[in-house]
């Protein structure tokens, strides 16, 4: 896994098109404006949203379930990422000049991509736990537990942080009177990067996306054929939650991985100036979309259902009375296990 960002020559880009005309344009202004604007918005919204969610989850941690543990780790991953985005904003506001030293350059690149793939794997884990809870409610008692959720989270953190270490190898460097960071690989590195890309694409995107797709297909099939038909509101709520999660996943991650694949192949060929400029602009847009997953995740917490809203109510009451009251009692077993979209009949109880 590695960063693919557009090429930014020090001066105007010169490329010969098919009609032998010389192109004297760069996307520097476009890149600097788009990145500085979007990263600023993502940093603010992501920090506020995830900080709020994290505060609620920590304050009500004694109510923890497997699903809430995944949510907690996802919020931590998002916050680690958004805390580095202001450094990127400063870099692009100053037209590609890095002021914060080599170590922070490496850490900033590393944090963005650790968050990218941690988010994908945490979403996969949450989708799998929901699928087990709905499709196999009896087995769910043993398969989806707090202990196993914690083990899964530790495994995801270790796996992603280790395989993302190549980002730490690429730091800042001097180019003219500017210190550069977040710049693209050299052309001679493309063959090696292609191998790493396809490994990352398969392990970090295709497999998790396939698991999520299968899980949601099984959930929808189960919801449509069982007694949840008796409660149209609950059934629609569950289905819309699946739609929102899938849409957020596709908007944030799919365009970036598709574009990265095309871009690496593109770098191996000589193309026209127009095609080169278009490809570079597409990198800016899709990388920003990938970073925006930090803003989508708090929405996922909200749409996960009444469990989070109940925690918010508990958080408010605790905040207003913590000085004069003792520790709150733990929720009953039924309340603790009441995950979003819970529905029961005489035979089966479903809890996502």
TrEMBL record:
The chain crosses the membrane at residues 38-58, 70-94, 114-139, 151-173, 193-217, 238-258, 278-303. Residues 49-301 form the G-protein coupled receptors family 1 profile domain. The keyword Disulfide bond applies. PROSITE patterns: G_PROTEIN_RECEP_F1_2. It is found in: Cell membrane. The keyword Cell membrane applies. Residues 343-352 have a biased composition (Polar residues). One of its GO terms (cellular component) is plasma membrane. It holds the Pfam family 7tm_1. Residues 326-352 are annotated as: Disordered. One of its GO terms (molecular function) is leukotriene receptor activity. Keywords: Cell membrane, Disulfide bond, G-protein coupled receptor, Glycoprotein, Membrane, Receptor, Transducer, Transmembrane, Transmembrane helix. This is Cysteinyl leukotriene receptor 1. It comes from Pelusios castaneus.
């Amino acid at each position: 896994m590695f960063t693919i960002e557009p090429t930014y020559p020090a001066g105007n880009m010169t490329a010969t098109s098919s009609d032998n005309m010389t192109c004297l344009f760069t996307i520097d202004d476009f890149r600097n404006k788009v990145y500085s604007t979007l990263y600023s918005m993502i940093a603010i919204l992501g920090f506020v949203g995830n900080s709020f969610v994290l505060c609620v989850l920590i304050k009500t941690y004694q109510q923890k379930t497997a699903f809430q543990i995944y949510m907690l780790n996802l919020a931590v991953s998002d916050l680690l990422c958004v805390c580095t985005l202001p450094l990127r904003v400063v870099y692009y506001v100053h037209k590609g000049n890095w002021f914060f030293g080599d170590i922070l350059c490496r850490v900033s690149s590393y944090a963005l991509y650790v968050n990218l793939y941690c988010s994908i794997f945490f979403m996969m884990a949450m989708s799998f736990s929901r699928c087990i809870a709905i499709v196999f409610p009896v087995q769910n008692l043993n398969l989806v537990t707090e202990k196993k959720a914690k083990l899964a989270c530790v495994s995801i953190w270790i796996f992603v942080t280790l395989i993302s270490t190549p980002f730490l190898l690429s730091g800042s460097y001097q180019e003219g009177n500017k210190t550069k960071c977040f710049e693209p690989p050299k052309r001679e590195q493309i063959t090696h990067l292609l191998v790493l890309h396809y490994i990352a694409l398969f392990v970090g995107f295709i497999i998790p996306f396939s698991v999520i797709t299968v899980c949601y297909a099984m959930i929808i099939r189960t919801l449509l054929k069982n007694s949840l038909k008796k409660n149209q509101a609950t059934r629609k709520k569950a289905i819309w939650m699946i739609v929102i999660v899938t849409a957020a996943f596709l908007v944030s991650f799919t365009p970036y991985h598709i574009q990265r694949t095309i871009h690496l192949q593109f770098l191996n060929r000589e193309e026209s100036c127009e095609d080169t400029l278009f490809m570079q602009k597409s990198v800016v847009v899709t990388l920003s979309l990938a970073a925006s997953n930090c803003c989508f995740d708090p929405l996922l917490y909200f749409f996960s259902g009444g469990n989070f809203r109940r925690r918010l109510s508990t958080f408010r009451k605790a905040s207003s009375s913590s000085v004069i009251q003792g520790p709150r009692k733990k929720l009953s077993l039924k309340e603790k296990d009441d995950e979003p979209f819970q529905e029961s009949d005489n035979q089966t109880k479903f809890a996502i």
